[in-house]
Amino acid sequence: MDAQITVINANRADVERVRSLRLAALADSPLDFASDGDETTWNASAWGDWLTIARAVWLAARDEQDVGLAALEDAWDEADACYVASVWVTPTARGIGVADALLEALIADASRRAARRLHLDVVATNTRARAFYQRHGFRTVGEARHTPRGTREIAMTRPLP
Questions:
Q1: What is the reported pTM?
Q2: Average pLDDT, the chain
Q3: Confidence label for 66 from pLDDT (cuts 50, 70 and 90)
Q4: Which domains occur in the chain, in start order?
């Protein structure tokens, strides 16, 4: 029998869990995140600030082991939109619905915040992530930018109910 995936909204008490997953994500897929790697030097206070700045960070666990992380921010240029800042799943938990559960939590949270749209940027060469987002109703709306590590990102968006 498959273990159930649980998703929780992280808070300051979860700082170490968030830090551990985010650093694992950056180590696993450094080019897939708009990060310059500074997180490796952050202390607990800086991680607590990231939780606050990120607005909402969600953690996924399976068999009481953390297996995924997602972050949602208010869009900086639209009052009625939110931005998917990060989604990552441990390699051993990919393909079993963890990313789906995390994205569903972000979509529900954005809807509770009265957002009408959800935006994200994804590395152009990350075809698996792009297909995942398309499966969840996101559509490409253009090229977003180049990340601090020099990769090209694609902007995607989807309406919210």
A1: 0.88
A2: 87
A3: very high
A4: 5-159 (3.40.630.30)
Q: What tokens does 59 get?
A: 């953690």
Q: Are 81 and 114 in contact (CB under 8 A)?
A: no
Residue 91 exposed, middle or buried by CB count within 10 Å (0-12, 13-18, 19+): exposed
53 CB-contact burial (10 Å; exposed 0-12 / middle 13-18 / buried 19+): exposed
DSSP readout, the chain?
-PPPEEEEE--GGGHHHHHHHHHHHHHH-GGGSS--SGGGG--HHHHHHHHHHTSEEEEEEETTEEEEEEEEEE-SS-TTEEEEEEEEE-GGGTTTTHHHHHHHHHHHHHHHTT-SEEEEEEETT-HHHHHHHHHTT-EEEEEEEE-TTS-EEEEEEEE--
Model pLDDT for residues 34-63, shown as the tens digit of each residue? 655 677 788 888 888 878 776 799 999 999
Tens-place pLDDT, residues 67-97? 999 999 988 888 899 999 889 999 999 999 9
